[in-house]
Amino acid sequence: MTFESLLVEENKPVVVVTEQGTVESINVAFTEAYGWTTEDLVGKSLTTIIPEDLRDAHQMGFARFLSTNEPAVQNTRIELKVLFADGTVATAYHFITSTQENGRRRFIASIEKK
């Protein structure tokens, strides 16, 4: 999968995040799968969809990547937990990739229910 193909993916739940960790967009499949709306997430921290007990680990990993530019979880399918809008937590398959254009880095993740 490429960054561009994930951006237009309609059947898989997708979230786009800035390098500041702010949700830039979600697709309809994400809304349908996890119950979050665009209003719930866009402009908010990605940690909104990360279970509370995993937020510190996420922040440390994200910061490490930004400082070293060495991906630990990108471009591979991994199992991570995701927080639904109703408070439910479940394991999902994540495929995370990033791109940098005009000095601006963005991350995109396909997050499919397990």
End-to-end Cα distance, whole Å, is: 19 Å
Order of helices and strands: HEEHHHEEE
Query: How are strands sequenced across the largest beta sheet?
Result: 2-1-5-4-3
Radius of gyration: 13 Å
Number of strands: 5
Unreliable residue runs? none
Mean pLDDT rating = 88
Structural classification? alpha+beta
Give the helix level as a range of percent.
25-40%
Task: Specify the number of helices.
Answer: 4
Instruction: Please outline the major beta sheet.
Output: 5 strands, antiparallel
Percent of sequence in beta strands: 25-35%
Give the overall shape. globular
Outline:
The protein is an alpha+beta fold and 114 residues long. Helices cover 26% and strands 34% of the residues. It has helices at 3-7, 28-34, 38-41, 55-68, and strands at 14-18, 23-26, 77-83, 89-101, 104-113.
Describe the fold and architecture.
It is a single chain. By secondary structure, the protein is of the alpha+beta class. It is 26% helix and 34% strand. A five-stranded antiparallel beta sheet has the order 2-1-5-4-3. The longest helix has 14 residues, at 55-68. It is globular. The two termini are 19 Å apart. The model has no long low-confidence stretch (mean pLDDT 88).
